[in-house]
Amino acid sequence: xxxxxxxxxxxxxxxxxxxxxxxxxxxxxxxxxxxxxxxxxxxxxxxxxxxxxxxxxxxxxxxxxxxxxxxxxxxxxxxxxxxxxxxxxxxxxxxxxxxxxxxxxxxxxxxxxxxxxxxxxxxxxxxxxxxxxxxxxxxxxxxxxxxxxxxxxxxx
Length: 156
Known about the structure:
Elements: E1 2-8, H1 26-42, E2 47-50, H2 54-64, E3 71-74, H3 84-97, E4 103-108, H4 112-120, E5 133-139, E6 144-151
Parallel strand pairs: 1-4, 2-3, 2-4
Antiparallel strand pairs: 1-5, 5-6
Helix pairs in contact: 1-2, 3-4
């Protein structure tokens, strides 16, 4: 059994022409650091898959302050308008290719984070606050997942 943690980036600056270049606000950095500390104590992620957008990269950097990853990759499959089926297939392929990694952290954006949860665990589509993390148990033998919970910075 593997654990998949799907995280929305921390709070970002307002929309602008270049959405990919938006930075985290100070609150966003705080949210990411808080969730990174929580993850290190509760789930200990050892693999990271992250969107190339600046706010997701900054979130991952803050999380990495308290976590060590055996595997880390940036993929354009996790941008806001990305296709959840493609992202889920790619994640499942990486899980199979890296059996030494037991807990996978995916850092991305709305709406793909919600769609990705639904893709992995049909019928479950939580709305993510900034910095929130959904927890999913994944059986790599059957490729079936079970949505467990969602945890936001205000609740950990």
